[in-house]
Amino acid sequence: MMEILQLQNIKVEIQDMMIFEKITTNVQKGDIIGIIGKNGAGKSTLLQLLNGDFLPTEGQIKHVQQDLVSAMVEQEAESYSFDGVTPEEEALLRKWKVPFRDFSKLSGGERVKARLAKGLAKDADILLLDEPTNHLDEQSTDFLIRQLKSYQGTVILVSHDRYFLDQVVTKIWSIEDQTLISHSGHYTSYMEFRERKRLTQKREYEKQQKAIERIEGQMNQLTSWSKSAHAQSTKKEGFKEYYRVKAKRMDSQVKSKQKRLEKELEKMKVEPLKDEYEVNFSIKSNHKVGKRFLEVKNLEKSFDGQILFKDANFTIGHGEKIAVTGPNGCGKTTFLKIITGKETVTKGDIWISPSANIGYLTQEVFDLPLHQTPQKLFDKESFNERGHVRNLMKHLGFQEFQWTEPIGNMSMGERVKCKLMKYILEERDVLILDEPTNHLDLPSREQLEETLAQYHGTLLVVSHDRYFLEKTTNTKLIFSNQTINKKLDVQEVPSKKDDQEELRLTLETERQEVLGKLSFMTSNHKEYEALDLRFKELTKLIRELQ
Hints:
Layout: E1 3-14, E2 17-28, E3 32-36, H1 43-50, E4 58-63, E5 70-73, H2 87-95, H3 108-121, E6 126-130, H4 138-149, E7 154-158, H5 162-168, E8 171-176, E9 179-184, H6 187-233, H7 240-267, E10 292-303, E11 306-317, E12 321-325, H8 332-339, E13 347-352, E14 358-361, H9 374-377, H10 383-395, H11 412-426, E15 430-434, H12 442-454, E16 458-462, H13 466-472, E17 475-480, E18 483-486, H14 496-518, H15 528-545
Parallel strand pairs: 3-7, 3-8, 5-6, 6-7, 12-16, 12-17, 14-15, 15-16
Antiparallel strand pairs: 1-2, 1-4, 8-9, 10-11, 10-13, 17-18
């Protein structure tokens, strides 16, 4: 493939803070590059740099192919206009079933699809995508994968979606320890490579430490012999000169050997393994509640004459963990807003327990006071309370200086964590989470999975991440055919079509779980071969059901 772009010793500092440095790599025509890294590592910053939004502090980006045109699709946007839509863009919007209406009335998934259509339609040499699968349902994600695989230019994208990265990318750029590691292959292949590299480094470091111990022991022994020789030379009456000469000769030999050993030590530069990035937190529910949380009777909601859902009847008990599922634009977020009093119903009734203490995590990232700092946002009177908040920030992966940094300077993932902190501190007994994994790095997603699995309150989660829902919920609210149904009990017999769809979702969930395990194994792991075989079997079964 032809090289089109070179990054030469790139360094970026923002407000005296090092983002990354010593980045030297290249981009080839037809590459689909996935940028990975923890929240705040600089992934979006790297995309903006490649888009020409600013210049690096040091180094240069060299365009090997002249007149390169880039197009950027950002993570989130507060506005979008359908004015001036090109025929190519309109064709994509229709394929994605995006309605031509005011941007504020579009669902999260529809907003993403509208912006993706604009980016893809530009037919740029380099297409830059920041978290393109956030908010997308399964069908839309599969369509995006097909679009990117057939794209004629080069694609560079940021994503935390393991399945998406494995399906679409040809190269991984991992931002770790303020520099970039480039690897040819998909996400799973990179994680295997990384694990092998860490194991090799661990063994080499242990080997080095044993060698250092041996060399230092020899040096100590030589020093001891030299001191002993000098001590003997002062005690041997009549032979002092002879022993003095002997001691000096030994001194010379000792110094020569010590220099050789010191040079040997200098060659040993294997660094110890750095601890893996970890995120730790928990959410408690702190209130006594009744049996029911919510009851819906003949609920209907429409916008501008278009019905989102109608004739909905169901009850949610306290302590239930509900997955709210359905395609983009079916009314999932609208339903959550009705529960939290931010939207009204068109018809029907909804009863909510007056004792319920609800925490609502929206999918928006612009609804935080971006000028405020965490210190101001989580203002606490006592020293102990402030210490608790700062300790929580540390466990969520924040750095010390971010306590007094404006939230507007944070990455999208860090903003989501700030919103999560609010509910962790308030100990709500009902959590309503709208796309909570959007923007979160993998360690944060996994910790959130564990935390919600142990949460004793009521949980309603909108997510298109099947693996996440499988780990955290046990009941479904299914939005389909303009109504809402609570998942059938296992004793009831569904139709053949429903049965097939349920089986496909079950197999897909298992496949995601197997892929998650494979991502953290090397190919020589004792379980790798069996899991790899199971992954292929599941993929075949899913294709047969589609």
